[in-house]
Amino acid sequence: MISREKRLIITFRCTTDAIAMEKACKAAQAPGRLIPVPRAISASCGLSWCADLNSRQSLEELLSQQDLQPEGIYECMI
């Protein structure tokens, strides 16, 4: 059985923003990865950034530094 855990999910308005987030996170060695948006969340773009809940503050700071506007930031069981 696959174990589920609560994760931080950041959604974006467009794929370009999601890819920019991936690039910024890799450059900053920030945690997480791109995943399809979970079914429980409705979003304009089909991609989202998934990371540990503990990384929320650092990822929000990175979003601000990179001038990226997320569509939403969620805590979801996935």
Task: Please describe what this structure looks like.
- By secondary structure, the chain is an alpha+beta fold.
- It has a single domain, classed as 2-Layer Sandwich (Alpha-Beta Plaits).
- It is about 30% helix and about 25% strand.
- It contains 2 helices and 4 strands, in the order βαββαβ.
- A 4-stranded antiparallel sheet has the order 2-3-1-4, with helices on one face.
- About 25% of the residues are buried.
Structure summary:
The protein has helices at residues 15-28, 56-65; strands at 6-11, 33-36, 47-51, 72-77. The protein is 31% helix and 27% strand.
Helix content: 25-40%
Overall mean confidence score, pLDDT: 94
**Order of strands in the sheet with the most strands?**
2-3-1-4
Given the helix and strand composition, which structural class is it?
alpha+beta
Low-confidence runs: none
Overall morphology: globular
Indicate the CATH architecture: 2-Layer Sandwich
CATH topology title: Alpha-Beta Plaits
State the total count of DSSP E strands.
Answer: 4
Main sheet makeup: 4 strands, antiparallel
What top-tier CATH class fits best? Alpha Beta
Number of domains: 1
Computed over alpha carbons, the radius of gyration is 12 Å
Oligomer: single chain
Specify the number of helices.
2
**Beta fraction:** 25-35%
Alpha-carbon distance between the termini? 13 Å
| SSE series | EHEEHE
Pfam families: Se_S_carrier
Protein name: DUF3343 domain-containing protein
Domain Putative Se/S carrier protein-like: 8-75
